[in-house]
Specification:
The complex is a heterodimer of chains A (422) and B (456). Chain A has 15 helices and 11 strands. Chain A is of the alpha+beta class. Chain A folds into 2 domains: 207 residues, Metalloenzyme, LuxS/M16 peptidase-like (Cytochrome Bc1 Complex, Chain A, domain 1); 181 residues, Metalloenzyme, LuxS/M16 peptidase-like (Cytochrome Bc1 Complex, Chain A, domain 1, 2-Layer Sandwich), CATH 3.30.830. In chain A, the strands form 2 sheets. Chain A has a 6-stranded mixed sheet with strand order 1-2-6-3-5-4, sandwiched between helices. In chain A, strands 7-11-8-10-9 form a 5-stranded mixed sheet, with helices on both faces. In chain A, strand 4 and strand 5 form a beta hairpin. The mean pLDDT of chain A is 96. Chain B is α+β, with helices and mostly antiparallel strands and 456 residues long. Chain B is 40% helix and 20% strand. Chain B has 16 helices and 14 strands. In chain B, a hairpin with a 3-residue loop joins strand 6 and strand 7. Chain B is globular. The chains are: A alpha+beta (422), B alpha+beta (456).
């Protein structure tokens, strides 16, 4: 038995809702996880952050669920719950003792189908305040908290779906009205734009009946508008300086790369790991450990539905110039491009990725989310083995080639510099 | 069956949940190992708790225990730091370490097939760390820069000043575990070596192991590795109780231009005691322990002052405190403080039966989900060890919650919720905040710098 090979059932209701059922009877818990295939990429200029605000509105009650009771009912059942918004999707999830599965389905169906009758200006005004506060706490009031927004703005041109962060701008957050919210719901929250995963310790036959019972008569509102694919012009090297009240300067370097589940996203992820994923990784060892030019360094490949990028961020030690850090980063990337990586480095990365796949199988709620993720991007929920195989078959040359193809002279450079004191 | 959406579905039959059996093994060196066997996935986790932690630090050298913990995997036995990191990564295993005021926590996680080798590396780390001068100097510089960076983070400043005011008079819990610039500067590599010799003691250690392995194998493997680890015995540690002097001031640390104010309100309370633990836990769930609690519903869902506001009773090994924390819209700083005090005063009048039942139900039904991952189980057992809880703690857990009455909550609120003892820490824009405090009649203001020193 391979622990990464998950047996599941998948089918569609008449209204287009996709249903995925997976049994795992290790602990008497059931997880429900719904993906709506919309996120901040589907917003428009002037209304950024609307997908995330809408996620908040989904917790404000629906026709048969009074305000605040969604949380209360789940917590009273000993469950946990939340939602999250990214560029490409919005998810909602609960994990409860299995005897409360039916209540969760009732709650999710009520807000999927009958949210609008319970909407009010008062609730919207309140959640605009909450989201404003979320943005200030997590971004504006955090050291380096605005870097992400500046990077996206420069990395993806105006009109590109990834031009702004999911939280949205303060100005836009303040501007939402009832019509925006209603319109977003009607466009993107139809059953046919969603998939629901139930994972855990439950009876498949009765779960099917419950899903049919609560979800089948939710009307499909209209066809969800798909946004057109957006091709990116190549970047030209650009330096942005931003001064902030921080002690240490920090540099961000970002390159356009590739979308999710394409040929090169995995080689770039492994490259990121080889550059900064461990103590002996190339950039960490040189910059943080041996020469102490940087306090920290992180590298990752982001792969989305509409684009991807490779991001390096390093915080300078006191008194160290960012130019020096930058030139060392570029020099070490140059070494990878010229001489490639060793088989030992590749094997270490493969081994840690393989174990992290297995460690991640412990939570039934993260399994549920992963099933939705594979279903959404690959149309095959049980893709754990196929996904891991993409890493397993990698050769050293693929990593070198990815570095040569993408990590060129055309990148966005953001320098956060301590503001001058009087 | 006709669909009626107005009816909330009730729970179906009760679920079956068996608490996993905890087995205790005494190793050859007398260390106790607690073991839970589970074979759902081919993975094993091991935690090592060594009690003591940074409260043993010389107060002028606070940060010693923390730096020692950072040094452990900077080279041990025949491996230097890079080699150790490579060995773990090649096995697909993880080594983690952390230090608190009361203990050092070390852990490994590995696939079953690599557990043997991972455990050997772990044993090398705890029994023969290099503690080299060169590595020490580097880790010390890293710590000093990290301390410098805390100046940027209003949450760090608020937490550090709160602790300082909570434990006045050079108390061992007053300063951050990682120390201050001046205390870290005072640490030498000899202090690290002394910590290792005198304070990292096998007679204060407990092992917790959870995962895909059987009893006989665990016993054999542990005895051939960590069961041989033997150190100097722990010295007697005398702890002085924190001062109970009440000083209900408002401390303001200026962060010019901040759009939010970070608020901490609280006071010294009692250390963990099993006779009051559950009444306090249930009381706090109604007050501010979760999303649906009074404080969050008021400040977030009703007033819109914040993204979240929570309260908790916190426990050190030798002390306890109560705290309410939030990051609030700068212009609502005074309003938020007033609302928090209103909630504290209000809950002293007691709670109603629905609130009690809700809190009980939430805790009792949540119980099985705390046994889902090896990490969660190991963390629960670690708490059991830290607070010397009885072995049947989990078996009596649900019944003890069920037995709590409204009267128990009322007397817990009377005794443990003390608005008069509260002091307040605010990190925010002085000009915005002071005006509001004045207008709302909140006096007793003292201005501090980010280190908690008075500004004259």
């Amino acid at each position: 038995m391979n622990v990464l090979d998950l047996k599941y059932e998948r089918y569609k209701l008449n209204n287009g809702l996709e249903v995925i059922l997976y049994n795992n009877k290790h602990v008497p818990l059931s997880a429900v996880n719904i993906w709506y295939k919309t996120g901040s990429a589907y917003e428009r200029k002037g209304k950024t952050g609307l997908a995330h605000l809408f996620e908040h509105m989904m917790f404000q009650g629906s026709q048969n669920v009074p305000k605040e009771m969604h949380f209360r009912f789940i917590q009273e059942a000993g469950g946990s719950l939340n939602g999250s918004t990214s560029f490409d999707r919005t998810n909602f999830y609960e994990k409860v003792p299995s005897n409360f599965l039916e209540m969760v389905l009732w709650l999710e169906a009520d807000r999927m189908g009958f949210l609008l009758p319970a909407l009010s200006q008062e609730k919207l005004t309140n959640q605009i305040s909450v989201v404003r506060n979320e943005r200030i706490e997590r971004y504006d009031n955090q050291p380096y908290g605005l870097a992400w927004e500046i990077l996206l703005k420069n990395l993806y041109p105006e009109g590109h779906p990834y031009n702004w962060p999911t939280i949205g701008s303060l100005e836009d957050i303040d501007s939402y009205n009832m019509e925006d919210v209603t319109d977003f719901y009607q466009k993107y929250y139809s059953p046919s734009n969603a998939s629901i995963v139930i994972a855990g310790d439950f009876d498949i036959a009765s779960a099917k009946k419950m899903v049919e019972y609560y979800f089948n008569d939710i009307p499909n509102l209209q066809n969800t508008p798909e946004i057109s694919d957006f091709s990116l012009n190549s970047l030209t090297h650009k330096v942005i300086e931003h001064s902030e009240d921080v002690q240490l300067s920090r540099i961000y370097m970002a390159w356009h790369t590739t979308k999710i589940f394409t040929e090169d996203d995995v080689p770039l992820e492994v490259l990121a790991d080889i550059l900064a994923g461990s103590k002996s990784s190339r950039l960490y060892k040189e910059l943080v450990y041996d020469r102490e030019l940087a306090q920290d360094i992180s590298v990752y490949q982001f792969s989305g539905k509409f684009a991807g990028h490779f991001l390096i961020a390093a915080t300078a030690k006191p008194g160290v110039e960012l130019e020096l850090i930058k030139s060392e980063i570029l020099r070490l990337i140059g070494v990878v491009k010229k001489s490639g990586i060793t088989s030992n480095e590749l094997q270490k990365s493969k081994n840690s990725i393989k174990s992290s796949f297995i460690y991640s199988m412990q939570n039934v709620d993260s399994l549920a989310d992963q099933l939705n993720y594979y279903n959404c991007f690959l149309d095959e929920p049980n893709s754990f083995i196929a996904d891991l195989t993409r890493y397993d078959i990698l050769k050293e040359e693929a990593i070198q080639k990815a570095a040569m193809t993408y990590l060129n002279d055309n990148y966005i450079e953001l320098q956060i510099l301590p503001s001058k004191k009087d | 069956m006709l669909l009626d959406r107005t009816i909330r579905p009730a729970a179906s039959d009760n679920i079956d949940f068996e608490i996993p059996e905890i087995k205790s093994i005494t190793l050859d060196n007398n260390i106790q190992a607690l073991f839970i066997e589970r074979h759902n996935l081919p993975i094993i986790r091991l935690n090592l708790v060594v009690q003591g932690g940074s409260k043993l630090d010389d107060i002028d050298k606070k940060g010693t225990a923390s730096l020692f913990t950072m040094m452990l995997d900077e080279g041990a036995g025949k491996y230097n730091a890079m080699q150790l990191s490579d060995e773990f990564e090649m096995l697909g295993s993880n080594f983690e370490s952390s230090c608190t005021d009361d203990a050092i926590f070390l852990s490994i996680r590995s696939l079953t097939e690599n557990f043997n080798k991972t455990l050997e590396l772990f044993n090398t780390i705890i029994s023969s760390p290099h503690l080299n001068e060169e590595d020490f100097e580097r880790e010390k510089r890293k710590t000093l820069v990290r301390i410098l960076q805390q100046k940027d983070d209003p949450e760090d400043i608020a937490n550090n000043v709160f602790s300082l005011k909570l434990f006045p008079g050079n108390h061992p819990y007053a300063l951050p575990t990682a120390g201050l610039e001046e205390t870290v500067n005072a640490i030498s590599n000899d202090d690290i070596k002394n910590y290792f010799l005198n304070n990292f003691n096998s007679d204060k250690a407990t092992i917790i192991i959870v995962g895909d392995i059987n009893y006989e194998e665990v016993k054999r493997l542990l005895n051939s590795t960590v069961g041989k680890w033997k150190t100097n015995p722990a010295a007697e540690f005398t702890f002085f109780d924190p001062s109970e002097d009440v000083d209900p001031m408002i401390y303001l640390i200026d962060k010019p231009g901040a759009m939010h104010s970070d608020i901490r309100i609280g006071y010294l309370s009692e250390k963990r005691d099993e006779t009051t633990y559950f009444p306090k836990l249930l009381l706090n769930m109604v007050l501010g322990g979760q999303f649906s609690s009074r404080i969050n519903l008021n400040l977030r869902e009703s007033k819109g002052y914040t993204y979240g506001a929570f309260s908790s009773f916190n426990y050190y090994k030798e002390a306890g405190f109560f705290i309410v924390s939030s990051s609030v819209n700068a212009i609502n700083t005074a309003d938020s403080i007033i609302e928090i005090f209103n909630e504290l005063n209000k809950i002293r009048e007691g709670i109603n039966i629905n609130e009690l039942n809700f809190a009980k139900s939430s805790l009792i039904r949540r119980f099985p989900s705390s046994f889902e991952t090896n990490r969660q189980i190991a963390a629960s057992l670690t708490r059991m060890i830290m607070f010397s809880l009885p072995f049947n703690h989990f078996n009596t857990y649900i019944d003890r919650i069920k037995s709590i009455t409204l009267e128990d909550i009322k007397s817990a609120a009377d005794y443990f919720i003390c608005p008069d003892k509260c002091f307040t820490v605010i990190v925010g824009d002085k000009n915005t905040v002071i005006k509001q405090l004045d207008e709302k009649g909140l006096s007793n203001l003292i201005e501090l710098d980010y280190k908690g020193n008075k500004i004259f």
